[in-house]
Amino acid sequence: MRLQITTDYAIRMVDYLAQRRGQLVNARNMAEELGITYQYSMKVINQLKKGDIICSVQGCNGGYLLTPEASKASFYDIICLMEGDVRLNRCDDLSRFCDRDVSEYCAVHKFLQDAQEKLIEGLKNKRIVDVYRKKRSARAHAV
Asked: E-assigned strands of 29-84?
């Protein structure tokens, strides 16, 4: 499984905003600092706004910040918001699509289903804001 670049940017934007702890951030500055084009960053920002992860404040000193709900958002939540359902293989989808069309159930299905469940559990158990907190804690101990 490979995350789309849009999802990678979304995770990095949420981390970036978490580092600013409630400070309003200008979209152009954020895009520039993260190495994302402004147009592409706005596409990601709009998705994050729809998912109630970030909000905007209008006005000459406006910008973007995390919503209170973002502190509860896991990596799984962001990935699903940006990409849809997490699936390692099409055979684990509700349609039960089989490339080989040889049986209703194959020997590989159980292995992939277990791997997928572990992946999802891991993604659900790690909030994006925890990554920032861990980085901040490591820097404090290094000083």
From this structure: 54-57, 63-66
Determine the Cα–Cα distance for residues 126 and 122; give it in Å rounded to an integer.
7
Is pTM beyond 0.85? Reply is: no
> Number of helices (H) and strands (E), helices first, in the chain?
6, 2
- Mind listing the pLDDT tens digit for each residue in 119-136? 999 999 998 878 766 665
Task: Return the bridge partners of 65, or none.
Answer: 55
CATH of 5-142, one of 3.10.20.30, 1.10.10.10, 3.40.50.12160, 3.40.50.300: 1.10.10.10
61 vs 50: CA distance, rounded Å = 22
Parts of the chain with a pLDDT under 50: none
